Amino acid sequence: EAGVAQSPRYKIIEKRQSVAFWCNPISGHATLYWYQQILGQGPKLLIQFQNNGVVDDSQLPKDRFSAERLKGVDSTLKIQPAKLEDSAVYLCASSPRGDFFGYTFGSGTRLTVV
Amino acid sequence: GQQLNQSPQSMFIQEGEDVSMNCTSSSIFNTWLWYKQDPGEGPVLLIALYKAGELTSNGRLTAQFGITRKDSFLNISASIPSDVGIYFCAGFNYGGSQGNLIFGKGTKLSVKP
């Protein structure tokens, strides 16, 4: 079974620029999550999708972050404009039904804002 | 919001030694999980605990779900160099179609051969 695919692996941008990350979940997984992991901390949920609908985006900084999962499969997370404090690893995860079983993380995208 | 306090923050041990780390929460969780994260990778599940008081083993790893449902510990016996990494506890509550993992800050384990 293929895992959760994310790209790019690394990205360096200047503050105030825009950036987008892509995630392709495990085939058949209805639920998709984006987490932010700042250096030295555990991952923190940004947004959860169930199919193509948003279930929880309470911790997403909506003034600069946006995410979509238009066809209920792959997803894009965007930051516009980026700030220095957005430097982090952005992890995508998916699960079959939204509960714990089969919850799988991708390898993440490491973003550095300079 | 919910927070998990994980300790110790880091450990530097000799190969063959046993390791113990723990996690406490201000809130109750229905499920406790322990993950390991290697550099450049996402967290990988080690052990899942579903019931208060439950003690579960996975090879050299043993974890327990606290009776109060607000704490958990992980033990690693006879550590080896490949145990190096960051270990995270996570709590999980599932309701309706909504559920997400609340992570601790991690315990960084270094093993000296």
What characteristics describe this protein?
A: 114 residues, mainly beta, four-stranded antiparallel β-sheet, 11 strands, 48% strand, B: 113 residues, six-stranded mixed β-sheet, five-stranded antiparallel β-sheet
Structure description:
- The complex is a heterodimer of chains A (114) and B (113).
- Chain A is mainly beta and 114 residues long.
- Chain A is built from no helices and eleven strands.
- In chain A, the strands form two sheets. In chain A, strands 2, 4, 5, 6, 9, 10 and 11 form a seven-stranded mixed β-sheet that branches. Chain A has a four-stranded antiparallel β-sheet with strand order 1-3-8-7, with no helix packed on it.
- Chain B has 113 residues and is mostly beta strands.
- Chain B is 0% helix and 59% strand.
- In chain B, the strands form two sheets. In chain B, strands 2, 4, 5, 9, 10 and 11 form a six-stranded mixed β-sheet that branches. A five-stranded antiparallel β-sheet of chain B has the order 1-3-8-7-6, with no helix packed on it.
- The N and C termini of chain B lie far apart (40 Å).
- Chain A binds chain B through residues 4, 9, 31, 33, 40-45, 48, 50, 55-56, 91, 93, 97-100, 103, 105-108, 110, and chain B through 4, 6, 31, 33, 40-45, 48, 88, 90, 92, 94, 97-101, 103-106.
